[in-house]
Inverse folding.
């Protein structure tokens, strides 16, 4: 297996986990070459990596001569929730990526940042793998609009996620800690007779879309198309199903 996942609370590994995960030199092992950090952590419930931990981990990576990459799928959520600029989050990394879809609401698109040599090689590989696209300005325009108009409003998604978690926490058979909801992702556990697949299907029948992440684990995400009324509607549907 070329990719080695590193374990850590709420999707955040530390220096000890990083150093334990570096493969020894030897012809029987893939070479460790890259440390990848996802901000915010998806399966960590949208948790925000503290800047100090990011800096500590990337410092350790450099000591071991490893490249570093910031997966900024929800980077702007971390920016809005923490008050720390995207430039500061990205500074410790060799390369960084940001998604214009998800919370920013663009229909498609992402951007990759790095050194001039890195971006030149990325362009070459993009062409090599058939990634050429003509008349892409309309896609770029969506990303530009998202950056100009949809960053500050991410705070609304965060407030809606907390409200969802608070409402779910009041239901019998649901376990969730609203205080752990930092951004726009809510994970909750079911302890009653209804399992995750059943609840997700019954919610969908009522116009509410969530995702089963295990037999009793459900993931819900707030975004541009989910307002406060939608949160109350989702809670009403959950109450009706769970009694």
């Amino acid at each position: 297996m070329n990719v080695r996942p590193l374990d850590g609370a709420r999707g955040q590994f530390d220096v000890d986990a990083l150093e334990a995960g570096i493969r020894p030199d030897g012809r029987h092992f893939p070479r460790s070459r890259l440390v990848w950090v996802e901000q915010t952590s998806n399966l960590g419930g949208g948790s925000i990596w503290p800047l100090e931990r990011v800096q500590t981990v990337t410092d350790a990576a450099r000591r071991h001569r490893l490249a570093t990459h910031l997966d900024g799928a929800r980077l702007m959520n971390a920016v809005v929730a923490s008050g720390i600029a995207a430039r500061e989050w990205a500074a410790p990394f060799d390369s960084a990526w940001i998604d214009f879809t998800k919370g920013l609401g663009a229909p498609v698109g992402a951007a990759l940042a790095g050194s001039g040599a890195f971006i030149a090689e990325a362009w070459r590989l993009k062409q090599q793998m058939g990634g050429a696209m003509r008349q892409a300005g309309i896609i770029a325009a969506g990303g530009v609009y998202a950056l100009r108009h949809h960053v500050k409003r991410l705070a609304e998604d965060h407030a809606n996620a907390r409200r969802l978690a608070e409402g779910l926490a009041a239901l019998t058979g649901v376990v969730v800690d609203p205080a752990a909801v930092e951004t726009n992702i809510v994970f909750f556990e079911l302890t009653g007779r209804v399992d995750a697949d059943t609840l997700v299907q019954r919610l969908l029948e009522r116009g509410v879309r969530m995702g089963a992440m295990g037999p009793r684990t459900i993931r819900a995400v707030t975004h541009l198309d989910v307002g406060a009324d939608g949160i109350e509607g989702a809670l009403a549907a959950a109450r009706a199903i769970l009694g």
